[in-house]
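Record type: ASSEMBLY
Status: queued
Input:
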Amino acid sequence: MTDVPRRQPTLDEVAERAGVSRSAASRVLNNAPHVSRDKREAVRRAIRELGYVPNTTARALATRQRGVAALVIAGETPAIFADPFYAQVIVGASAALEEADLHLMLCLAAAERSRRRLEELLRARGVDGAMFMAIRENDPVLDIARETELPVVFGGRPAGFEPSWYVDADNVGGARKATEHLLDRGRRRVGMICGPLDTQVSRERHRGYREAMILAGLEPFAPESGDFTEPSGAAAMAELLVRHPGVDGVFAANDNMAAGALRALRGAGRAVPGDVAVVGFDDLDIARITEPSLTTVHQPIQDLGHETARMLVRLIGGDEPSPLILPTRVVARSST
Amino acid sequence: MTDVPRRQPTLDEVAERAGVSRSAASRVLNNAPHVSRDKREAVRRAIRELGYVPNTTARALATRQRGVAALVIAGETPAIFADPFYAQVIVGASAALEEADLHLMLCLAAAERSRRRLEELLRARGVDGAMFMAIRENDPVLDIARETELPVVFGGRPAGFEPSWYVDADNVGGARKATEHLLDRGRRRVGMICGPLDTQVSRERHRGYREAMILAGLEPFAPESGDFTEPSGAAAMAELLVRHPGVDGVFAANDNMAAGALRALRGAGRAVPGDVAVVGFDDLDIARITEPSLTTVHQPIQDLGHETARMLVRLIGGDEPSPLILPTRVVARSST
DNA sequence: GAAAATCCTGGGAGCGCTTCCAGTCTATGG
DNA sequence: CCATAGACTGGAAGCGCTCCCAGGATTTTC
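Status: finished
Output:
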């Protein structure tokens, strides 16, 4: 650390200092064969002494590999993105990308302009591949995802389109188990608070609910729908109480809305789980801190991000992985 | 859309089709002067017909500008990052970067390996600049931030180091106002639930609390400290009740911990705000949905991200902006 | 001991774009 | 009608790295 060079040293300088050709220097950089012990050593030393770091851009241009993967979150921000759900997904994805030595480009693509930039990013080969999440039915982002020639993996299936590669949680199964859990507890008048109906995840969770009800010989309630936020859950619960005063169980499509339902029930003077039992979905932190604590369907959120990224990495590497459905399970707490 | 070219067209192909030189084509691409109307038109047409998109990497290599900014979140994931706080910050930063046509590289740099990759990313000039957040005292990430030659802006000042460029919220002022708010409500035995003491934000909020107490001629309580999570707030509140059974007001360093405090108070049979008034900090969504709803200090979180990114953009552009402190204000709700 | 196989080595041609520069062309002004 | 500033134009030199390839050195094989 004697002198601080103003410009980053280049591979040519390393080669010169080591007394070898640039090709040779490049070879040791990439751990390629055909370099004698001595030269390899000399190059390593020169690299160390010069504090050389290969220029990613130049390498990217030559190899046609960027070393970057995009994570696209299509939903309206901040509403969707503020959900801790995506924070978790990002943590998982980030870890998996790191294992493959890829960097993470985060693209929030709700606005028109954001979408145009995303499209250019993909067409300009600014990334090696992309993960798509939170896509709604007829979302223009879906077209971008379908038309790109780059490897693409979906985290959660989009509504109305079955992609070749995706990772998803077992939403139908989880919802069914949640509903069955309520039925097992002796509830018979079980309602549901649904998410936005233009998302696949809402539809699947609703389907699971219906299946369980019908299997038990019961009539499913028409779902109240919210937008995955706490207040919308409270509103939906209030409405449910009006339409079905005798309701004794509620399955909410996520924990936020379930928390809202708990609040609404408390406001209406109904005891939980005494009068009405409640089950959520996601198993976010909030499920542990509501009162009563929330029975919910656990899904491995970080894994979802992790596996989505791993799948993308494999796709980029030329493999052809298979879609993946991650298991869900009921976590019983005090609300049932 | 007649034929789908397998390879992306290059600028040479555009130039050839338009019957001009590559230089000329490049000029129209960059809206540079010295191209005749006709040729400019011809190039535009060729671009359209070929569906040409300039290769970002090649451009980056030639111009030495990546078109990418890094957002580094240093804190332990998922704990820190799962906080909706950072999701908001990202939304703001993303919007500001988009205005400057920069992409966002998200770097979670808690682990050793992540840090090494970050360091290489910066040294290899893989980004044009970086924003640093959630840095703790003696955090190794701080060294990386200080040693890079790239433009760097801090979102929130790190403990023990005053950077040249940062954007921060007025934590001291906000904490003082929060405490004064409690005092105005007639509380005299006001305690504080603090965050981790190795973060600057915790220290500043604590300082604001002390200042307000001392100014009012009252003895500040020794702070209970948590880690910004709800359970830690509940635990701290419980402890506070043991040490100071007569406590009649509490200022928590963030809303999550304040929510925990509310829960602990309810568990202890204390009425809020009747027996104990509570104020939080951040004004996250959670503050609206606790019961009672939470009086808190509002800080413009999205703006924090937005301004941090804007400052970075200016720095990259060669300006020398000044540090920025964003205002905070008390939002009175039902907990006081 | 000669031929063949194997390993090193550095030259050079890209990757796709920007930008400098020298040369050409046009429109003025005297 | 000629000199001259000024706007065009395309050739060519990079940006920093990878990788093919031909030539030379070194072994291996019979």
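Annotation: DSSP finds 13 helices and twelve strands in chain A.
Annotation: The first helix of chain A runs from residue 11 to 18.
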